[in-house]
Write a structure and sequence with these properties.
flat, 495 residues, 6-stranded antiparallel sheet, alpha+beta, 15 strands, 3-stranded antiparallel sheet
Amino acid sequence: MATMERALQLVTVLEQELVNRRTDIDRHNAYYRGRGRLRYASDAFSKYHGDRYRDFCDNWVQVVADSPVERLTVNGIQAAGETEADKDLWKVWQVNGLDADSQLGFLGAVNGGRCFVLVWGDPDDPDMPIVTFEDASQCIVAYEPGSRRHRRAALKRWQDGGEDFATLYLPGEVWKFSRPVMYGEDAKSPAMTEVDEELKRWKPRELDEPNPQPNPMGVVPMVELPNKPSLVGEPMSDVAGVIAMQDAINLLWAQLFTASDYASFPQRVILGAEPPKLPVMNSEGVVIGDKPVDIEKFAVDRVMMFNGKDARIAEWQAANLTMYTGLIEVAVGHLAAQTRTPQHYLIGKMANLSADALLAAETGLVKRVEEKQLWYGQGIREAARLIALAQGDDRKADALRSGRVLWADAESRSHAQLADALVKLKGIGFPLEWLAAKYGLTPTEVSDMLAMRAREMEADPVSEITRMMVDGRTSEPAPPGQEEAPDEPVEEPAP
């Protein structure tokens, strides 16, 4: 069992690492919400038009992040040695609302580079553990030296009202701490600074339960789901490389809007005249001098008067605005290629493309989704093991270590295409239950479908057998009592 000093040391180290990660995570989330700060190519442009386009964002980060998440759907979890998904695990999944919250977790991983799953037993219902997806801005897992899977500690830190809270998870126990939130960094006296430093220190929370309390699972109950991990370095966000191109596209739009504003009038220049001046008068109305006219005012009003017999006006051709739209299309094309996002997700216009052409266009996105299924699936499988441990079922927990996650198909196909493929697979002997799962039904829906089919067979077995024979599905066994009689031997005629 860790001592209080050791627990506080771990909280301090993990909190510092979490703070270091927060900068990139917050920036990526801000860009996903369209709150990225518009960057300018020059100080002059920023000076005249900065406020005008301050809140503008042509948000492509959101499209890139959403495109794989909409195809990441968990249909069940299957333990090793089993032929179907575990129904008890699926009940836990649905009771905890994870069919919806998992989408939030996957989106957080795509944006922030990782997300987490926390499992803890419910003392009021031992058979129904509490499972939550957690954001990377609030959680961190520490691993054993040289390992990417053996967890030795985890920390969840969050703010609620005027207090910061921290929960440290260790294999043997769970520590809970809190401290007041410190606002502002104003200059203070040495005595008050010392008081603030004392308040900033974590202190054990005063609870009705033990603190620390024992961890009955014997392992750290938090699992990391990394996004685009590597052997060396941190997992990567899908939107980290999009932000620079996003800034460039937004700048091009700002320049296009500005150019179109000025291009609505012919651009002219005054030749052969001195800059206009305004008279300066005293309190009695007598002219005592003059001052130059504020040119910036005329740039806004677009009206200027000159005196002089040699004054004349010349003009030049307006800017070619299609140059900007062409550059924006090229930038969006680069963004699509770099992120493996289909062009028709971004451009918004389609020609008469065949089904095969659309399938080929989405190949990059499908592979991107399948990569995430691989890495997220490892974390979800470990979370399923933690659920079994929380329920006290060590045998199932051991089987789930080498189980697998059942995902919905990453490819987007029409019902006609999918049905045609499944009929062909049925013809070569694939069982109906497997085909139903391939169609995208959840384990609960598959069970319901099989029960409906059994009722149909029981109500009208003759019609069902006839339909099977017409469809060429005679390999399916007939219901009890309706087996076909063997063919009678046919006697050969006498010669």
